[in-house]
Amino acid sequence: MHKTMDNAEAQQCLQSLMRVWFDFERRLNRVPIIQRLENGEFTQQDYLSLLLNLRQQVIEGSRWITRSASSFDRHYSEIRSQVINHAKDEHRDYLLLEQDFVALGGDLAAIQAGARNIGSEALHGYLMYRASRPNPVDMIGAMWMIEGLGEKMASNWADRIDELIALGGEKTCFLRYHGHNDASHLETFCHMLDSVCRESTTHRAIVKTAQVVARLYCMQLDEIDG
Fold first, then answer.
1. DSSP letter assigned to residue 134
2. How many Å apart are CA 185 and CA 148, to the nearest integer?
3. What per-residue confidence (pLDDT) applies to 3?
4. Residue 75 region, left (φ>0) first, then alpha (ψ -120 to 50), else beta?
5. Collapsed DSSP state (helix, strand, coil) of residue 84
6. Which one, of 223, 221, 217, 205, lies nearest residue 9 by Cα?
7. How many CA atoms, within 13 angstroms, populate the side-chain half-sphere of residue 135?
8. What is the pLDDT of residue 188?
9. Which pairs count as long-range contacts for 104-107, CB under 8 Å and 24+ apart, including other chains?
10. For position 1, what pLDDT does the model report?
11. Rounded to 5, what percent of the chain is helix, strand, coil?
12. Three-class secondary structure of residue 30 per DSSP
């Protein structure tokens, strides 16, 4: 990804985002439900709870991405188009998640009626607030973190869940979809970063938003056991 960058500020921003990512990984590994997954103590009920809680964030994803797109003016028309395309890719992901939940024995009505937990409320509120500001280029940091989670961890989580619960891959479709597709999304964000990150103030804004999203995402997962 570093080779796609044409300017030094974007290179430095990408390096900063990678540092945020490594800190995010460390924090994730301290979240109880992720610890149980890594330690081999993850149960079918844990997986149902994970899907139930993730669904509320996933279903709101296309809303804040679309809000971001609508907040860019004509000077950012290319960025706006790319963000709109990303929202289009994401807006029905929750259906795969619901499919896995039902296949696992969960009740469709229950997951559809589920409320956002405290962490999900905080994450959604923050993302909608930032997305509503004029020309919210810092949202690249938010999308980087969430898509990075899919690209770097979703497939591993799916493999581990299949191993522990003997699901055979048929009930981890949501995670596997993201593990397969999010790498191309990250490449798109690299190009976006290269086009907008020309000064240190933009660099700092993108990184700060990524840091906040990382903390709130961990909070969302922490609340599963809260």
1. S
2. 9
3. 45
4. alpha
5. helix
6. 205
7. 9
8. 76
9. 104/44, 104/47, 104/48, 104/51, 104/167, 104/171, 105/44, 105/48, 106/48, 106/51, 106/52
10. 42
11. 80, 0, 20
12. coil
Six-digit token string for 142:
């938010």
Contact present, 104 and 47 (Cβ < 8 Å): yes
Residues in Cβ contact with 200 at an 8 Å cutoff, skipping those fewer than 6 apart = 9
- State residue 2's pLDDT score: 43
The tokens describing 133, both together, are: 């500001």
Residue pair 81/71 in contact by the 8 Å Cβ criterion: no
Output the tens digit of pLDDT for each of the chain's 226 residues. 444 566 888 899 999 999 999 999 999 999 999 999 999 999 999 999 999 999 988 888 888 999 999 999 999 998 999 888 877 776 678 899 999 999 999 999 999 999 999 999 999 999 999 999 999 999 999 998 988 887 788 889 999 999 999 888 789 999 988 877 655 666 777 888 888 888 899 999 999 999 999 999 999 999 999 7
Torsion angle defined by CA atoms of residues 199, 200, 206 and 209, in that order, rounded to the nearest 10 degrees? -150
Contact predicate 194/7, CB 8 Å: yes
Residue with tokens 């599963």: 224
Q: Which domains does the chain have, with CATH numbers?
A: 2-225 (1.20.910.10)
Q: Which of 166, 186, 169 is nearest to 177 (CA)?
A: 169
User: Tokens 């809680």 correspond to what residue?
Assistant: 53
